Amino acid sequence: MCLGSVSRSLLLILLLLLALPFMAGEARAAATVSAIEITPSNVTLRFDQPVATASAFMLSGPQRIAVDLPGARMSQVAASGGMIASTRHGQYDPNTARVVFTLNRSAIIGDASFSADHRALTLTLKPVTESLFGRAVRKGRQLFGLDDKPVDPRAAQRGGITVPLDPPRPLAVPTVTGARGTRRPLVVIDAGHGGHDPGSQSADGKYKEKNIALAIAKAIRDELVASGRVRVALTRSDDRFLVLGERREIARRLKADLFISVHADSATNSAARGASIYTLSEVASDRVAAQLAAKENRADILNGVDLGGENNEVSSILLDLAQRETMNISSQFAALLQREMSPTIHFKDEAHRFAGLIVLKAPDVASVLLETGYISNDDDLALLLSNDYRRNIANGVRKAVEIHFARRLAGE
Q: What pTM, to 2 d.p., does this model score?
């Protein structure tokens, strides 16, 4: 299937999700997951109010099934049995509950259905080989409930009339813009943090990294689109939370040629300032790099639940020659990026650093993390809020991207 067809299909899904209109003037309280029931082949989640839709995806190392429930909150429920070894849960964001089932054998969701009143979701588990489970991991999310008609809890008091529910928050679906034709290189720009995760904040708490990163990411996108030489996609174009692994998987599924994650640094020392660039290494280049990796990788932890599910497969693949080649290309681009940005952007000493950042662990996409300055430093913060500074960053990125792909095309 071509990329255009995939994009149209994903956009159709978004339209379907948004087609569930909100009942004007009447707010609906979030549903609560009230019970989890497990049989040898089924898992049933029960809710105290209707839940419109759900989605699920597989994780490996260990093998798990993660279920996201827009418009729901968790209660203190847990269950095990059958093919389920244990259950964990937490809030993916304030409006979405996530339940993670750890499996005691390889299994996938063979079927899923909501009850007529949408107060229960039953997942039918199907035992499979490890190979087929791995294929399900790569396939990504399954969506449930789009074709059903949820029943509002107030319907019984209204003569049985069905009242539409407010729409669930749609999943992130990046749009590819820029140069036409799939032969043009694709650059995925990732605005760090988002949603419940603000990232670093200014000393007065007024400015948040998630907003600054998004503004800079959009400036880079616009500059690259204007160049007409590459295709561009943003992992997020609004204030939403994405698990770190999902950010890099967006790049992989789009078959991106380059991935740039945009951030703003912070430090307890308010005098610290300057931009820096990180590339992947399982061994941090210094203490500061190790601290940054620990901070950024914690973005997947919420209410004590690991939402990211970093797996052993990704760690072990670092030893593979293909991964090493990707890391080499990433380092080359990082050096080029610093060179092209340096005329207008101040970099701190030893600006190119290495760390085990989860977001950079795509084994087949050259990836860098760009720290654009220190939000904790007043002078850097003023720059980060400046349109001129953002344009300078975007201009430097564009020059580096153009040279990078020109070299790749020439086989250097």
A: 0.56
